[in-house]
Amino acid sequence: MKKILLIRLSAIGDIVFATTMLKPLKESGKVKIYWLVNSPLSSILYGNDRIDEVISLPVDRWKWLFKKLKFVTLIIEILQFVRKLKKYQFDISIDLHGILKGSIWAFLSGSKEKIGLGKREFNWIFLDKVYPRGGDASFFASEYLYLAELLGFKITDKKPFLTVPDETKNNIKQNLLSNVKDKFFVIAPFTTRPQKYWIEIYWQELLKKITSEYHDNDIIILGGKNDYDAAEKLVVHENVKNFSGKTKLAEAMAIIYLSDGIIGVDTGLTHMGTAFEKNTIAIFGSTVPYLTTANPKTKVLYAGLSCSPCKRNPTCNNRFDCMHAITPEMVYKEFTKLVDL
Hints:
glycosyltransferase; alpha/beta; Glyco_trans_9; 35% helix; 341 residues; transferase; 17% strand; Glycosyl transferase family 9; ADP-heptose-lipopolysaccharide heptosyltransferase activity; Rossmann fold
């Protein structure tokens, strides 16, 4: 049985995208799939029956050792981890980052064949073969699907694949969701860079519209602990609940899975909505990871200004015109369409 190691250490959204490769690989025949991922994000993949084993990279532990100047212990633990990887005797390792750190781990895995996606940061030095990025850039996770095709795997399903363990779902229902209405929606307004944020007053206007018309629904705001104060500004009605900083990643996943839909910006939680085939509205501006998906319930709102997507290099003096161009009325209109499906 062939052993394949997928290497996608982060980030949340990219891990979600990369799960589109799981079904083609599994359907190819007798293979065992392993996934190397940073330990804080490993819960995204736990319980996924298309993965035979999730291997957690203890990055937080190693960062702590480095910060405490415990270099000898750090080196010993890294070497122990590398030895552990090599014991698996992988046939193929596939670096899905396409940058140096992914290719180094492909090399350290000791796999017989080391494959990479795209050439950047001299990553090709550690790989046997590098495949170009490609595919229809407007489609969800296209570069991963394109790589799977180049590797000879048949694509029969273009959907990402995530699972939530029953134990987690039941725990969420009995605790965090115990005082939440049976029908609820999620918003994911927070992300990594300011140019990916939608406008605060737009969120407020949208939530006022939703809560005034859909009285029997609650709205849950998801985010990290550092987002709590910003989320509080969006609590415009008693039906809006601020869960920012109150959930672990696995719990946030379960909440999205149990919800009736999600509205969010370009962030991993929004992409989970598509993976779970939920009613999903994705608001994109400076970045546009996709326009279409295999989930008919996903609607992407993207103004497509001449300066978009600017990615990490805004040219609007931080006005973020692309996000201003998507109004609360536009989002609410799409919300009502999805809710009424």
